[in-house]
Amino acid sequence: MCQHVFIYGLIDPRDGEVKYVGKTKNLQERLKTHIKEARRTNTPKNAWILSLRRLGMRPEIGVLEEVLEEEWEYYEQWWIAFFRQQGLLKNMCDGGAGRNAPLSEETKQKLCQVMGRPVKEITRIKISEAHRGRKHSPEAKARMRQAALGRIVSEETRLKMSASGKGKPKSLEHRQRIGQAHKGQSKSLEAREKMRASKVGWKPSEALCAIVREKNRGEGNGRAKLTAEQVLEIRRKYCPGIVSLPSLAREYGIDTGVVFRIIKRQSWKHL
User: Considering Cα of 251, then 254, then 260, then 263, what sign does the dihedral take?
Assistant: First the structure.
């Protein structure tokens, strides 16, 4: 009967990053053992666990993959190599049975070949769920930026990224960060030509027009001199023969024509 084991990751609760990869049959017992062993030897993994304990926290444990017992060495080495590329791990060796022995050339070649091994969909979902809502530390962001420098993204990947982002609403904070990142940047001539070409023959959809109209309505219009509350006051105060249009215009610092259009509901129609 084939038995299964778990390839697990120890996760930092502060940023959701995987710091250590191992294998076990019992996740919670293995986590307890890691915490107990943290004071016995001075290793990067134990030092990290002790730093969490001093803050009143403990590492989290999550399943990266469930595999057959006779295949665990291969998968543990694969996951260690995968996370080591991101510069996150506290593992001192490359995994497998020969933990402290250097890898043979044959093993290194195999690992190079399997780095392109597709990750199972259920594993992708688990990793995504583990990282959801977590924020990367400034150090992790710096490492990710450094790793991405000079990397050329294939056309296929670009299309996938574009398709995944279409129709996805961005939060106000996200839009502000994007605006801040682009502020003061000068676009190359090639980028300008691409932007110009992309707009040739383009017409905004009715839905987009409706969004823009709604955004620019009333106080949302950058040229608006009145608030919604003042507009309602003008309509309440106006009384032919008693409160005239010119008197209201003087009171609110606007033209008489503007007051007239407000009274006749030719402007601020939504109120």
Answer: negative
